[in-house]
Amino acid sequence: MQSHCRRRAFLLALAFVVLYGGVQAQEASQSDNAGRSRASASAAAVAETRSSTAAVGDLASIKPVEHNVLHRPIELSDGLTHWVDRSYPYGSTQQGARPVHLGVEFVNPRGTPVYAAKSGVVVFAGADDEILVGPQLDYYGQVVIVAHPIESLAGRQLFTVYGHLDETSVAVGQAVEDLTLLGHIGSSGVALGPHLHFETRVDDPYDFRMTRNPELWLQHYIDNGMIIGRIRDEEGAPVLGKRVSVRSNDFNRDVYSYEGRVVNSDPVWDEDFTVGDLPAGDYQVVVLDEVGKIAFAREVAVEPYRTTFVDIVLANALAAATPQR
Ligand SMILES: [Zn+2]
Fold this sequence. Notes:
mainly beta; Glucose Permease (Domain IIA); Immunoglobulin-like; 2 domains; nine-stranded antiparallel beta sheet; four-stranded antiparallel beta sheet; about 10% helix; binds zinc ion
């Protein structure tokens, strides 16, 4: 019965995508509902186009690669946290303390409303205690999964996942608009406290191994951009869990490259780390060696609504000095 429902929900989602996909692709630049709009949806910034000749599955042909089209699922209000929690970003284990993070957190009090990041159709709503949508049953607790007709992935399907809710406000098969209320923040499933766990998945809404980094999909704040990059050794192998510092005159943020292989790089960016929500300006990207000496440093500019990519190659000795998880 459950698998029958699941199949039906999935078919509904596909039908929705076929019907509305073309319409939604034109809509990427529309403004937010109800003044909830400090994040910009500038058409120029969103750059949500792809080559008209792109064949389904032909990922290399998608240009340009920026696809920051999702609203933040938390209201852009001063009293709420609508930015990604930096202590446990996508791909992080908090240096070995926690499981590899398959999404990002928006830490807010229980009962905070959670909104659809984009229009679509609900493919799952309720407890995950009988259907596996995470690494184990009852992992996300009360969870909503929405399928989106977004054409950034050469015909592949994007899903957003909203976990640990207190309760859900939508039903399977329901069409939702941008910022439709989906439920409220709770701590159901495996959660240390009330927060929203937010994921983006590709192709299969039930497969936790299909996540991508949600930061690459979220709209920028006004006049903000982001730095992302790749850290590889001399043979081109990813260096896991390496600390990267992003600095400016009045700013310093440390991030770690993805610490495990259960998370995925964006098919076009092929990134190992992201640093979102950076005010436009000049930054220095730095990697230190084991004794605190600069092993890599580059000056980069962040432009409003754009992504700056930094390609870091480390000597094998330094790359190997990083604990591999
Ligand atoms: Zn989480």
